[in-house]
Design goal:
The protein is an alpha/beta fold and 257 residues long. It contains six helices and 14 strands. It has a seven-stranded mixed β-sheet. A seven-stranded mixed β-sheet has the order 7-8-9-10-11-12-13. The N and C termini lie close together (5 Å).
């Protein structure tokens, strides 16, 4: 199983509009971060996690020819607002997307036209999505992958992380409930929210992410959803303990399925 990081930045992305800080002005390609999204593939099966505002550009950059499903972590704009670009996959049949009940409810309010039964609009130019509610902690087969939704807390919102085989993806969180740690045992790779070194009300700081990583005990940990406030990629890497790295856009990992 292969994981490709489409984007590893915050809702602002990096560089931030109008900012000339050292991170935003950096010539290191690892400091250029699109909004957070990831692709998981094995053989000819492909699942994306989230469709942020740059989803089309991310798919083109990675030369992804087809997609089987999308998993949504939550409904914030930086994780969902590229949803219209799924219409290219909807010509033959509705395209399946998945998330928590809260996420799907929000999707139907904000994008009612993507589901034919809820839409007053019709035509081939619209996405036609098959929306599916997942239950926390209950495994489900999606495109041949065994997917486990992992409840995590993102400020006042319950979001989903996802476990597939030996890989787990937990972006946008500032707390992992006790029962979710049991869903994360025996991982090869875990990806964790690690916004910056200073605290934040809805995201793990880097030190909090390290603490969570130590408890999870995966062989490898990668931090994502990085802010320009965190500093330069190369400088942050020097401060991280062994086995914990920063993800960056375009990074490709192999994981146990």
């Amino acid at each position: 199983m292969v994981v490709e990081f489409f984007g590893t930045g915050t809702s602002h992305g990096i560089p931030v509009i109008g900012c000339d800080c050292p991170t935003c002005a950096s010539s290191d390609s690892r400091d250029t971060r699109l909004r957070t999204s990831t692709l998981i593939r094995e053989d000819e099966r492909r699942i994306a996690v989230d469709t942020g505002p740059e989803f089309r550009l991310q798919m083109l950059r990675a030369a992804v020819p087809a997609l089987d499903a999308v998993l949504y972590t939550h409904s914030h704009a930086d994780h969902m607002n590229g949803i219209d670009d799924l219409r290219i996959f909807c010509y033959d049949k509705p395209f399946p997307v998945y998330g928590s009940k809260g996420t799907i409810d929000d999707l139907l309010v904000r994008f009612p036209y993507v589901v034919s039964a809820h839409s007053k609009y019709h035509g081939d130019g619209l996405p036609h999505l098959d929306v599916n509610v997942l239950n926390p902690g209950i495994p489900v087969e999606i495109a041949g992958f065994q997917v486990v939704p992992v409840p995590i807390v993102h400020g006042g919102l319950v979001a989903f992380g996802y476990r597939i085989g030996g890989f787990a993806y937990l972006t946008d969180c500032n707390f992992i409930p006790e029962e979710s740690y049991f869903l994360l045992e025996g991982l090869d790779v875990v990806v964790l929210d690690g916004l910056r070194f200073t605290s934040h009300p809805t995201h793990f700081s880097i030190s909090q992410a390290i603490e969570a990583a130590n408890r999870i005990g995966a062989s490898r940990t990668y931090l994502t959803h990085i802010s320009h406030d965190a500093g330069l990629h190369a400088d942050i890497e020097k401060k991280l303990p062994s086995g914990i790295c920063l993800a960056y856009d375009g990074l490709i990992l192999e994981c146990s399925s």
